[in-house]
Every structure is written in C-alpha cells, then in structure tokens.
Specification:
CATH architecture of the largest domain: Orthogonal Bundle
Distance between the termini: 70 Å
Oligomer: single chain
Largest sheet: none
Number of helices: 10
Number of strands: 0
Length: about 190
C-alpha cells in the first residue's frame, strides 16, 4: 500500500460510515441506532467506527453537521425572498445527505435534549444571521422563529407524517404556496 492510497481509503471509510449513520439515525433515531448496526450497514468492523469517531455521540455530531447554505438575502430582490428560502429548504429536504440529516434532527429533537440543542444551534448560527440582514435587527429573532415554525411544520407533515395532500405537492407548488407566508414573516413588523 502506498502512502497516497491510505488517505483515499480512510476518506472512503469515513464517508461510508457517515452515509450509513445518516440512514440509520434517520430510520431508527439516535437512541435506537447502534454502532454495530451502523458498522454492518457500512460493511466494516464496529471498531472502525470507534476509531474514526470515538463514540456514538461523536458519530452523531459528524452525521448531523448540517450546512443550510442559505443565500445572502440582502442580495435578493425584496419580493423574491420567501420563494428563495422555501426553495432552498425544499432542496435540502429532497436530496441526500441533507434529507437524512434533517430528518434525523427533526425526529430526534423531540425526545433528545442534545439534539434539541443542536437544532437551536443551527437556528442561531445559520437562520438568524440570514434574517438579521433584513429589516429591523431587533425584530429578527421573531421573524426567524416564525420562518422556522413554518419550515419545520412543512417538514413534519411531508417527511415524517407523510400527509398525502402535502406529499402530492411538487417542490414548485410548495414554493408557490408557502413562499408568500415566508415572505410575510421576513418583511412584517411585529403586531401591537
């Protein structure tokens, strides 16, 4: 084995572990997923999972490292903000690995305080900064929180509960139907 091939094998093993972990966490939840099952799904020995990630908690943290990559809202036409955000969230939810990561976070946050804190962290570090670029910064927490309620509600109904009428909507229909609500959240003033 050459020195050049070792990192590639290591990278491939890490990727296989993360793929298997995301699927297993999404299907079974954090508590029920086991290192042994994840290793079996990845086709490796469980000791390799521990070697690369140290613990189930370390593996979970790596598996749910979500990067929303939200667009710079200040650089977008004011009337297109809501549609753009809905489209971005739907893109994340519709394709791997984002869909597995987000599903894991959504399912697990209800029962696991560590995951709940991770969701709050994503909100604080990724959603809030995007919304802070628009309107009154003092009102950004309210507006960002309303956006999250809408997007997580959509995700719950479409990807967890799988409510048939919501499942039947195309991504473009979701953008058209929910975009105006997100637009209102982004641009509204607080009620008196």
């Amino acid at each position: 084995m050459t020195a050049a091939s070792a990192p590639r094998r290591s990278d491939a093993t890490r990727a296989a572990i993360l793929d298997a972990a995301r699927r297993r966490f999404a299907e079974d939840g954090v508590r029920k997923a086991t290192i042994r099952a994840i290793a079996a799904d990845a086709g490796i020995d469980p000791s390799m999972v521990m070697r690369y990630y140290g613990s189930k908690e370390g593996l979970f943290a790596a598996a749910v490292d979500v990067r929303l990559e939200l667009p710079d809202l200040a650089a977008v036409r004011a009337d297109a903000l809501g549609e753009l955000l809905v489209r971005r969230f739907v893109e994340i939810w519709e394709a791997p690995p984002g869909n597995e990561v987000m599903l894991t976070l959504l399912r697990s946050a209800v029962t696991d305080d560590t995951v709940t804190e991770r969701v709050r962290q994503v909100f604080a570090e990724q959603v809030m900064p995007a919304v802070l670029r628009l309107g009154d910064p003092a009102d950004a927490p309210r507006r960002a929180a309303l956006i999250v309620t809408q997007m997580l509600g959509l995700a719950l109904c479409r990807y967890v509960l799988r409510i048939p009428p919501v499942l039947a909507l195309t991504p473009d229909q979701l953008v058209a139907d929910i975009g105006p609500t997100i637009q209102r959240y982004l641009t509204s003033a607080p009620a008196d």
